């Protein structure tokens, strides 16, 4: 699948770079071009892989390159004002080769959660290719404003993209981890999962029957709403060949049954693994199974059996899938499940956001606080809003 990546905000830019790192390490080719957008100059400087002309600073006239300090209304506003700068860089992409855009953002901050949906809306307006999103949910230990930002940005982001893949930082952070090294390993885990899914279609156009195609992933994501990804991998040791076999050039016998079982179990483990956002897999509307690895280690029958198993477990007939040849030392299975209708973390996030807003508004000490207008904008301020609902960002 050929994707154009646009990372908005710090988390967005870092995750885009992790995907680029995965792509080069795995020797696959799914990123057509990539770009980072930010309101903070320092966050763009921190990036390592994207060239200078693929880093766009927005809102300079308003926030002087210092970021929007978790104000996602301001993040949305300044991104909209400078959207021309973003689109002119996207214009330089080989968009005729692009199958889809992927807008990546952390939903807890100001720039990504505000600017991400704006970028998605504008790309959808200008280009015919689908626009997908990847949204990172803030942890429970972050400030109330991060939860409120995510609760407001989510419905807007979901509306502006064809599908929003979710990643829940909380479900992935190990206790006691240093935040920045923690993010690094989180981003690697995320890139591994998404990387396998986006590698689908490497064999597009070759007429290879069992290979998973770009269209399989696109149709799965067309279910709309939000999605999650499960993943499992296993190292494969190439069997040693004796001297005579090497001289004769013969290939070692392949235990077909063993390879098939290994692939089937791998797909099951992926579906039952810790998902990028935990949920009941039965709540999925569609899915796609991608098994990537050396051709000799990926049994088509194994993929088919695994797919059948996911179909039964999810009680969903629309489970697509296939293999994806890759020159690696391991076989990896990723299961993308979309159109989820029950994600407990999202319900909790909304509830917490309502409670936090109430708490913050009740505390006298926050009168005149810089977040007060934001909190009012989120609705339920006692004047005319509904106390139990959160207003979408726009
Ligand atoms: N997975 C992951 N999450 C991150 C990373 N950096 C930040 N986050 C999360 O993303 C949220 C948004 O943070 P940032 O991306 O730093 O914020 P921003 O969008 O740049 O917005 P401002 O800094 O407010 O302008 C935070 O609430 C964190 O939960 C990262 O590298 N990886």
TrEMBL record:
Belongs to the CetZ family. InterPro entries: CetZ, CetZ_C, FtsZ/CetZ, Tubulin/FtsZ-like_C, Tubulin/FtsZ_GTPase_sf, Tubulin_CS, Tubulin_FtsZ_GTPase. GTP binds at residues 110-112, 142, 169, 187. It comes from the Archaea. Its main location: cytoplasm. GO terms for cellular component: cell division site; cytoplasm; microtubule. Keywords: Cell cycle, Cell division, Cell shape, Cytoplasm, GTP-binding, Nucleotide-binding. Involved in cell shape control. PANTHER family: CELL DIVISION PROTEIN FTSZ-RELATED, TUBULIN-LIKE PROTEIN CETZ. GO terms for biological process: cell division; microtubule-based process; regulation of cell shape. Residues 381-394 have a biased composition (Acidic residues). Pfam families: CetZ_C, Tubulin. This is Tubulin-like protein CetZ. Residues 374-394 are annotated as: Disordered. It is found in: Cytoplasm. HAMAP family: CetZ. CDD domains: CetZ_tubulin-like.
């Amino acid at each position: 699948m050929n994707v154009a990546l646009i990372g908005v905000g710090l988390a967005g830019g870092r995750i885009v770079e992790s995907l680029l790192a995965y792509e080069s390490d795995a020797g696959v080719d799914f990123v057509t071009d990539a770009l980072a957008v930010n309101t903070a100059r320092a966050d763009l400087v921190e990036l390592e892989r994207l060239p200078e002309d693929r880093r766009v600073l927005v809102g300079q006239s308003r926030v002087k390159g210092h970021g929007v300090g978790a104000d996602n209304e301001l993040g949305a506003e300044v991104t909209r004002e400078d959207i021309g700068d973003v689109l002119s860089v996207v214009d330089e992409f080989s968009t005729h080769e692009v199958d889809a855009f992927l807008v990546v953002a952390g939903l807890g901050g100001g720039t990504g959660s505000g600017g991400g949906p704006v970028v998605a809306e504008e790309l959808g307006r200008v280009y015919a290719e689908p626009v997908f999103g990847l949204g990172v949910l803030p942890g429970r230990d972050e400030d109330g404003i991060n939860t409120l930002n995510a609760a407001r940005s989510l419905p807007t982001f979901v509306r502006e993209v064809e599908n929003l893949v979710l990643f829940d930082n909380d479900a992935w952070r190990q206790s006691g981890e240093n935040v920045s090294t923690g993010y690094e390993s989180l981003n690697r885990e995320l890139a591994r999962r998404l990387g396998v899914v986006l590698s689908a279609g490497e064999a597009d156009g070759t007429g290879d029957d069992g290979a998973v195609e770009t269209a399989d992933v696109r149709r799965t994501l067309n279910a709309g709403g939000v999605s999650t990804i499960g993943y499992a991998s296993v190292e494969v040791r190439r069997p040693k060949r004796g001297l005579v076999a090497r001289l004769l050039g013969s290939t070692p016998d392949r235990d077909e049954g063993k390879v098939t079982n290994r692939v089937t179990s791998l797909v099951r483990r992926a579906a039952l693994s810790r998902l990028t956002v935990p949920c009941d897999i039965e709540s999925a509307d569609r899915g796609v199974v991608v098994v990537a690895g050396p051709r000799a280690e990926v049994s088509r029958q194994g993929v088919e059996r695994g797919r059948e198993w996911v179909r039964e477990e999810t009680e969903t007939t629309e489970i697509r899938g296939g293999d994806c040849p890759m020159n690696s030392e391991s076989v990896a299975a990723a299961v993308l499940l979309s159109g989820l209708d029950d994600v407990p973390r999202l319900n909790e996030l909304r509830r917490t956001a309502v409670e936090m807003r109430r708490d913050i508004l009740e505390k006298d000490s926050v009168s005149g606080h810089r977040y007060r207008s934001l909190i009012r904008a989120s609705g339920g301020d006692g004047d005319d809003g509904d106390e139990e609902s959160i207003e979408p960002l726009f």
